[in-house]
Description:
With 258 residues, this protein is α/β, with parallel strands linked by helices. The chain has six helices and twelve strands. The chain has a single domain, classed as Rossmann fold (3-Layer(aba) Sandwich), CATH 3.40.50.880.
Amino acid sequence: MGLLIGQPSILTIAGHPGEQRAAGRVKIFQNLIDAAIAQALSRFSKAMQGRPHFIQVMAGDKPALNAKNLDAFDAVFFFGAGPGNLNEQQMQDLLAFVKDDGKGFVAAHTGDNAFQQYPDYREMIGGLWNHPWTKSENLEVDLPVIVEDPSFPAMQSLPSAFMVHDEAAVHLPPYSRDNVRVLARLDLTEIDHDLARDPADNDVPIAWAKRYGKGRVFYSTLGHSDQSWDNPLVQRMFFDAIRWSMGLVEGNAEPLGQ
C-alpha cells in the first residue's frame, strides 16, 4: 500500500469568479515512511489550496493504492525513493491507471529513484536516478535553471532563466532526450564546475514530460530542499504539471531529441 501523508483529507480549490471550472482529483502518496518527504508533501498540499482551478487533493493512508480506488482519481502526485512497498499487483494497477486509463502521473525529486525492481515503472517515468550532480558534502546549491520549452504548461509561469536552491541529478537510461521532452535544464555555463561530482556530466535535466500509452507523465528533479517546496515558482510548476497530466490543458510531450 502506498503510504500517504497525514490523515485522509480533501482539499477543494475554487476557481475565479466567472471562470469555467475544470474538476479533477489528485492522489498524493509516498512509498516509504520518511519524515522529510512527508513534510515536503504536506507543504505542497497546503500550497495547492490557493490555486486558481478546481482540484481536489486527497492525502492520507486510505484508500489503498489499487485499481478500484485509483479509479476515483485523475492523477497521482508522487514523491518517494527506494523499493517501497507496492506489490506487483499494485504496481500493475498504477501503470495501467496511466497507460491504459489515460490518467496522469507527476513525480518529484527522487521519484525516478523509486521502485527500481520494476522495469515498467522506469519506462513510465522516463529515467533512473544515477547520482546527484553535486558532490555528496554539498548536495543543495543555488541552481541556475534554463527553461527549454516555455510553451509547455508547467513552464509557462516560469522565467526563461531562474535560480532555485535545490539538488540536481544525473539520470541513467531509459532517460534520453530521444525518449522524453526535456523542459528545463541546469545551466552549466552559470555554475561553478568545482561543485560537480563528475565533470563529464553535461546533460542535467531539471524537468521533463512524456506520454505513456494514453497517459501523461511529468517529472522534476526539484524537491530536495524546503526552499523549493516553499518557492512559488516550484509550486506553480508542479501545479500546472498536474493540470496537464489530467488533460485539463494541452501541451506537447513529444521528445525534442539531442
